Amino acid sequence: MKLLVIYRPLSEHGSAVDSFVREFSRRNPSVRVELLDIDTREGMATASLYDIMQYPGILALRDDGSVLNSWQGAMLPLMNEVAGYAIGA
Asked: Is this model's pTM higher than 0.85 or not?
């Protein structure tokens, strides 16, 4: 499983996302986490591909890129909820 996070690092939610990712990675070292800045070409293309309309956008992806679940907006999901997709993937 891979966790993909699309966000703006220099925004009001940037530090909360960074803290979430740091703690999630500490608790779940086997899950790959990728951060993408929405203001880059790759970030915009990926957000469009997965229909992310609010930031931050967090995607739990299978290794083949298919979406297990997604969360959008300022309310970050619970770490246990996200980790549950890692166990089931």
From this structure: yes
